[in-house]
Design goal:
With 359 residues, the chain is an alpha/beta fold. The chain has 14 helices and ten strands. The protein has a five-stranded mixed beta sheet with strand order 2-1-3-10-4, with helices on both faces. It has a three-stranded antiparallel beta sheet with strand order 8-5-9, sandwiched between helices. A two-stranded parallel ribbon has the order 6-7. Helix 6 crosses helix 13, helix 10 packs across helix 14 and helix 11 crosses helix 12. The radius of gyration is 20 Å and the shape is globular. The N and C termini lie far apart (58 Å). The relative contact order is 0.17. The N terminus is likely disordered. InterPro entries: SsuA/THI5.
Length: 359
């Protein structure tokens, strides 16, 4: 069985046999979605968070011990993993690209975005490039016409493919979109390219793309930058059931503030993050660790979400028709009670960083 087909089948079975979704019954004392956020965190609150990088940052800086609630960290990240964990009721807070919350809503899982980050406006960098298979005879993006392109409708890679085709004036009917979920680390897409199962695939612009060219460049593998559009929407999102719990909502308010602090700390300490997490935890060589940190940052949390809502709306408007899903108002994905909290946390950490480094 081809590798790509095996991966797609495995993920499909995971959803098929997942535990049944919980019934939408509001418990007594549930917090409404337009109520002011509670400030006091009652004793005994636990927040289950899927974000391995921030797990390291919080523990490295001792932040998890300052908070008046307990965090249970989960080694879960990326759209399909977070969505499945929400589906199973096993996670309170997920972190990933901007498309998983859209796909969750289309799948009947009500979620809200409580934190939003992007590369700073005007930054000349992208999270993704287009990987080209050896022997695909693709020298420019216009050569994608008639080719097989890896496509994952529940992930941001789908948005990158569709926006690239649109920018190049290539109709979706003039290419073969090969349904294939990507994976953290990108091995699924690089293996599909190397084994001639697809001609092109969106690859992470950091370590994934670097390893692809290192391993297969001598066979003719190549990379092309996608047309100029922003692909760096990164979101913190939660099931609405978490927001309905007053204790978890109060804890989440604090967590989002510290998430903003963590963004600022990572921006200011790339070498410490590379050595501590990517070398110490992931076991990467230091050069690979530095490459990955540079590829993923710096990230900024805006004070206003107006541009973030527009960014999500563009994703909905291009993904909906292409995947047979209905368009909807992107504003319904955002819980604007959290709008300025991460930005406030970033500012506090930026003001604190010099004094912390002097200690």
């Amino acid at each position: 069985m081809p590798f790509a087909l095996l991966v797609a089948l495995s993920i499909g079975l995971l959803f098929l046999f997942a535990p049944a979704r919980r019934a939408k019954v509001a418990p007594a004392g549930a917090l409404s979605l337009d109520a002011p956020l509670p400030v006091k965190v009652p004793a005994g609150v636990v927040l289950r968070v899927g974000d391995p990088v921030n797990k390291w940052i919080f523990r490295h800086l001792g932040w998890d011990k300052r908070l008046p609630f307990r965090i249970e960290w989960a080694e879960i990240t990326g759209g399909p993993g977070v969505t499945e964990a929400f589906h199973a009721g096993a996670l309170d807070v997920g972190y990933g690209a901007n498309v998983p919350p859209i796909h969750a809503k289309w799948s009947g899982i009500p979620v809200r975005i409580v934190g939003f980050g992007q590369f700073p406006q005007g930054a000349a960098k992208a999270l993704y490039v287009i990987g080209i298979a050896p022997g695909a005879h693709i020298r420019s993006l216009r050569d994608l016409k008639g080719k097989r392109i890896a496509f994952s409708r529940s992930q941001v890679q789908a948005q990158v493919v569709l926006q690239t085709l649109k920018a190049e004036g290539i109709d979706q009917r003039d290419v073969s979109l090969v349904e294939l979920p990507s994976s953290i680390g990108g091995d699924v897409y690089t293996s599909a390219l190397a084994s001639d199962e697809v001609d092109a695939a969106p690859l992470g612009a950091g370590l994934v793309a670097h390893h692809y060219i290192t391993k297969f460049g001598d066979r003719g593998a190549s990379l092309l930058p996608h047309p100029r559009f922003r692909d760096s929407g990164l979101v913190l999102f939660v099931p609405e059931s978490v927001l309905a719990d007053p204790g978890k909502a109060a804890a989440l308010r604090l967590y989002v503030e510290y998430w903003g602090k963590a963004l600022a700390w990572a921006n200011a300490h790339p070498e410490e993050l590379a050595r501590g997490y990517y070398v110490g935890v992931r076991g990467l060589p230091i050069d690979d660790a530095r490459l990955q940190v540079h590829a993923l940052g710096p990230v900024s949390a805006p004070e206003s979400w107006n541009d973030a809502v527009d960014f999500e709306q563009k994703a909905i408007d291009i993904l909906g028709p292409a995947t047979g899903r209905p368009k909807f108002d992107a504003a319904s994905l955002f819980d604007r009670r959290f709008e300025a909290i991460a930005a406030h946390g970033m500012k506090e950490e930026q003001a604190c960083t010099p004094c912390r480094d002097e200690r």
